[in-house]
Amino acid sequence: MTEPTILAIDQGTTSSRAILFSRGGDILALRQKELKLHYPRNGWVEQNANDIWNDTLWACRAVLDDMPGRAKNIAAIGITNQRETTILWDRKTGEPVYNAIVWQDRRTADLCTRLKIHEDKIRSKTGLLADPYFSGTKLAWILDNVANARKRAEAGDLAFGTVDCFLLWKLTGGKVHATDATNAGRTMLYNIVEQKWDDELLKLLNIPKAVLPEVKDNVADFGTTSLFGRDITIGGMAGDQQAAVIGQACFAEGMVKSTYGTGCFALMNIGATFKESKNRLLTTPAYRFDGKMTYAIEGSIFVAGAAVQWLRDGLRLFDNAAESETLATSVPDNNGVYMIPAFTGLGAPYWRPDVRAAISGLTRDATAAHLTRAALEAQAYQTLDLMDAMTADTGYRPDVIRADGGLVANGFVCQFLADMLNRPVDIPKVAETTALGAAYLAGLHSGVYNSLTDITRAWQCARRYNPSMEASRREALYGGWKNALETLIRE
After folding, report:
1. Torsions phi, psi of 128, nearest 5?
2. d(CA 60, CA 28)
3. Residue 112: pLDDT above 80?
4. Is residue 353 predicted with pLDDT exceeding 80?
5. What are the boundaries of each domain within the chain?
6. For 146-205, what is each residue's pLDDT tens digit?
7. Cα–Cα dist 432/428, whole Å
């Protein structure tokens, strides 16, 4: 008998992907389609929600066509997604009333400034800060700025969801309007302590309860889809960063995974007790099984790989992102050049949506190589900012960082990260940890895996980067970063 397979949908900021996994976590087939971002105004970031769905459907069908034999044995489907991206659609037609507002969007910055007086309340219920990053203020903007949207929402004609929820609706033909605890926990509307939509927060943002989805565990019956030739259960769902926690098997308190994709997101498992961050990090659901929540402290950096993309597409310093490593290592140091990649504002632990990207230390002898090196080095400086805040919050200083995402293919980034953190950095054998996490969740529901122990045993390290930098040089480099950052913030 052929062993079961699992189909993972990984809908990200810059692409929609489908991956067919074996039980052992091997990638059997992968299809991907780039997704366009739209910038209608300064600070606004949108996507066509129908493109998100159509590209995802294409990727799934293409994967199944590539592996028809193994596709017949799909045990379940798992979904993972870019979090906070907000969609509001018609319940009858499934048609979005407005473009998807992407997590990077800053249009609600003024509203969030007005909400600062309520921030202690928001943080105590959601673990979040009043920032445009989260879904709640985006939803409020759509309701207030799209003709008849509020009236239709109050009448129950519209449905709200993050990308996972929208895809689930489409996959099930409009039969299931549900999300999971990790995505709900990023809306600024869901009380992650009491585990329910919070009436006080809904009132604060004037959100009608009628638009909200049901909130399920990460492993649950999310319904079935019949779009791929037979009925297949959707058994797992998680936001991308939480899915990576699963894929990296970070199930013990104090374990940290750090994902370097479009942005960088580091999560530390803090166990079953909710704890507010005192250092402007986020407390967020790591995962929820059988109604029992496990929490994480999260540091969110809005721009990581996107900075390399900007160097490639905006400045045309190289043709392929992989060339950035060669360019960066062609010079011995950054020549005093620092890039602060705040293209969509500063995330944790600063939370300054008004700040924009800057390059400091430029001289006549600065080159494209120095600029590229500065962009890559910035990922380690930003991560060190997060690690210091995490240690102050929890007392944990992890022995090792498990890193993943597209940027870990860059050896310079990984080594510099290990050097600046002064900790080993482990790269997993299966680099697609976000999709793998979604597959694990679906596999737990379908019985392909029996427990988290199965997942822990399956995790393998492909390469370890050990720190090798002298302390004096590390301190000098980080001091230069801090000076550049403080100058920008003061301005």
Report:
1. -110, 170
2. 13
3. yes
4. no
5. 5-239
6. 999 999 999 999 999 999 999 999 999 999 999 999 999 999 999 999 999 999 999 999
7. 9
Q: How many CB atoms lie within 10 A of CB 194?
A: 10
> Residue 478 CB: number of other CB atoms within 10 A?
16
Q: Where are the beta strands (DSSP E) in 331-470?
A: 338-340, 358-360, 401-404, 425-428, 461-465
- State how far the alpha carbon of 481 is from the alpha carbons of 350, 352, 450, 484, 487, in Å: 14, 17, 46, 5, 10
CB neighbourhood size of 224 (10 A): 19
Nearest Cα residue to 179 out of 191, 167, 189, 194: 167
Instruction: Using pLDDT thresholds of 50, 70 and 90, give the confidence band for residue 428.
Output: very high
pLDDT band for 82, please (50, 70, 90 cuts).
Answer: very high
d(CA 54, CA 62): 12
Percent of the residues in the chain that have a pLDDT greater than 90, as a whole number? 77
- Alpha-carbon span 478 to 419, nearest angstrom: 11
Peptide bond into 353 cis (omega under 30): no
Q: What are phi and psi of 142, to 5 degrees?
A: -60, -45
Residue type (1 letter), 129: L
Which CATH homologous superfamily contains domain 5-239? ATPase, nucleotide binding domain (3.30.420.40)
Q: What whole-number distance in Å separates Cα of residue 335 and Cα of residue 288?
A: 47
Amino acid identity, position 445? H
Could you tell me where the DSSP H helices lie in 403-449? 411-421, 433-446
Backbone Cα Rg of the chain: 21
- Backbone CA torsion sign across 211, 121, 135, 291: negative
What pLDDT, in 10s, does the model give residues 464-478?
999 999 999 999 999
CB 52 within 8 A of CB 94: no
Q: What is the mean pLDDT of residues 309-323?
A: 87
CB–CB of 235/76 below 8 Å? yes
In 3D space, the residue among 423, 420, 400 whose CA is nearest the CA of residue 334 turns out to be 420
Q: What is the pTM of this model?
A: 0.89
Model confidence at 69, pLDDT cuts 50, 70, 90, reads confident
